[in-house]
Design a protein that fits this description.
Layout lengths: L3 H6 L11 E12 L2 E12 L4 E5 L5 H8 L5 E8 L9 E4 L1 H20 L9 H6 L13 H6 L14 H14 L4 E5 L7 H17 L2 E5 L12 E6 L2 E7 H4 L2 H8 L27 E12 L2 E12 L4 E4 L6 H9 L9 E4 L2 E2 L6 H5 L2 E4 L1 H6 L6 H6 L14 H13 L15 H13 L5 E5 L7 H16 L4 E5 L12 E6 L7 E6 H7 L1
Parallel strand pairs: 3-7, 3-8, 5-6, 6-7, 12-17, 12-18, 15-16, 16-17
Antiparallel strand pairs: 1-2, 1-4, 8-9, 10-11, 10-13, 13-14, 18-19
Length: 523
């Protein structure tokens, strides 16, 4: 049997010498929205080198990688690209921004189809992955791409029906089908469960072994592949580290880049504590109650026969593999899923569909999610985004009073992003946007705070800050927490209960509720 590594190695074969320069930046400056983000960048990348780009939120990592792919123009300096980089598809690119653009584009096309009277299905995954109609053999059964990414069961589904993790794997497949000279992976592990992260790490290792040059941006040291040879570190819009990994990814180098010791990069920041479990829930008000809930899309069952209650005094974590229905459950609670009306669901003491408006529900819920971040298109300042949380609107369409402005700015200060208040939300980095959305979720002191992968895209310092804030919120009586995460070490100590979803769409899901005290007793 042909090994996985050998099959993957067949895609990016190149006849160029290993020493050939792929691209070079010479004293380059880059601008986004009229503001210079990076200054005086000098960076040379040669064929066969494997790079990781490090830096805090807002350091300019995604802007730099966008310039490598030709998406961000240089306003000063010179960018050199080799002949090999001038082919039709020289760069394979996977990023949060690309995922956002794909989803927005599909939504726009869906709206156009609706107004034109075309009610056909949206774009299927197979068509999206092939893009230009070529490369069908890459999706054939037995091909390493489909098998290693485990996307065979997704090929005939619509883009809009994919979970965040599933979408990330599909984007990687689309990039590799084009057989690029250079592969850029901007936080590729975000949104993936532990098994998917391991599978992707194996694929990246195989691609590097094959000779394909890979540039990876990540906030987690544990995600840096062993074969990465070089590191570029950005801080305050300038290059802080540039050279071989062995010499630079050290305690001193990381402290210089992040202001953190190396151990803090991967250390558990807020371990689950048994002391947070409530002393019993008898008589506690049910905030969310689901009875025999089922969600289906045609022949596909996403959720089936689920009973679940979230009571006052309980903080829950929702855990499960990609495609198991976690995001669907979040949408059922937040009021953003139509099938919630066809199920026996009670929110804050009232049955869904009994006369309450969607705004009655949203007023009691604070939400931070990938879908909200993707859908927030309003061209307004970060402070206005936070203020919009009072009205549960995407955009700000009324004047805020002094108390609301003060509360919004106060939450931004608590999260360390008050310096972003006047900056356009669209110009912020992914991590900065996530912090702003958390402030937006909390300004109204909701009864339930729903956090769908809240640490996605955050650097180590901001992860610790967010988890610390969630811990404080969860210890107070006014707001209960529902946290969706793929990382056990990012489960704050205030979490008292866990709903574990096993299986996926292909195998069928199973559900198991646990309390933190029970887990500790078993250990």
């Amino acid at each position: 049997m042909i090994s996985e590594r050998k099959r993957l190695a067949e895609w990016p074969v190149s006849n160029r010498k290993p020493s050939a320069t792929l691209f070079a930046f010479e004293d380059v400056s880059l601008r986004i929205g009229g503001c210079r983000v990076l200054e005086g960048i000098t960076w040379h990348v040669r064929q066969g080198q494997q790079w990781v780009v490090l830096g805090s939120n807002g350091a300019g990592k995604s802007t730099l990688l966008g310039a490598v792919g030709g998406r961000v123009p240089a306003v000063a300096g010179r960018i050199y690209r080799s002949d090999g980089m001038s082919c039709r598809n020289p760069v394979g690119y996977v990023s949060f921004d690309l995922q956002r653009r794909v989803l927005r584009g599909d939504a726009d096309r869906d709206e156009s189809r609706y107004f034109s009277g075309d009610l056909s299905r949206g774009a299927p995954v197979r068509k999206f992955v092939l893009a230009d109609g070529k490369g069908e053999q890459a999706l054939e059964k037995g091909n390493g791409l489909v098998e290693h990414l485990k996307i065979g069961h997704l090929l005939d589904r619509e883009i809009r029906a994919l979970s965040t993790g599933e979408m990330r794997k599909v984007l990687i497949a689309r990039a590799l089908v084009k057989k690029p000279v250079l592969l850029i992976l901007d936080e590729p592990f975000d949104g993936l469960d532990s098994t998917a992260r391991q599978d992707l790490a194996g694929m990246v290792d195989a691609l590097m072994t094959s000779g394909l040059t890979v540039i990876l941006a990540t906030h987690r040291l544990e995600e840096i592949p062993p074969r990465v040879s070089h590191v570029l570190g950005l801080k305050n819009g300038r290059v802080m580290l540039n050279g071989r990994r062995a010499a630079l990814v050290t305690a001193a180098g990381l402290d210089r880049l992040y202001g953190l010791p190396a151990a803090a990069m991967s250390r558990s920041q807020a371990p689950v504590s048994a002391s947070s479990a409530p002393q019993g829930c008898a008589g506690r008000q049910a905030l969310v109650e689901m009875r025999k809930v089922a969600v289906r899309y045609g022949p596909i069952t996403v959720i089936e026969n689920l009973d679940w209650v979230i009571r006052r005094g309980e903080n829950w974590a929702l855990v499960g593999p990609n495609g198991s229905g976690k995001t669907t459950l979040v949408k059922m609670i937040s009021g953003d899923h139509l099938q919630s009306y066809a199920n026996d669901i009670f929110l804050f003491g009232r049955r869904r569909g009994s006369g309450e408006s969607i705004w009655d529900i949203k007023h009691k819920i604070g939400l931070v999610s990938f879908e909200l971040q993707v859908g927030y298109r309003a061209d307004i300042s970060a402070l206005s985004v936070v203020i919009s949380g009072f009205y549960d609107s995407i955009g700000l369409y009324r004047s805020a009073g002094p108390k609301q402005q003060q509360a919004a700015f106060g939450w931004m200060t608590s999260l360390g992003v008050e310096h972003l208040a006047r900056k356009p939300f669209a110009h912020l980095s992914q991590g900065e946007q996530r912090m702003v959305l958390l402030a937006r979720a909390m300004v109204k002191t909701p009864l339930l705070l729903v956090l769908d992968e809240p640490c996605q895209g955050l650097d180590p310092s901001n992860r610790r800050m967010v988890l610390g804030v969630v811990e404080v919120i969860g210890r107070q009586a006014q707001t209960q927490i529902l946290l969706v995460t793929h990382f056990d070490k990012e489960m704050p100590g205030c979490i008292s209960h866990i709903l574990r979803i096993g299986g996926d769409l292909a195998t069928g899901a199973s559900y198991r509720s646990e309390t933190v005290r029970d887990i500790r007793r078993e250990q």
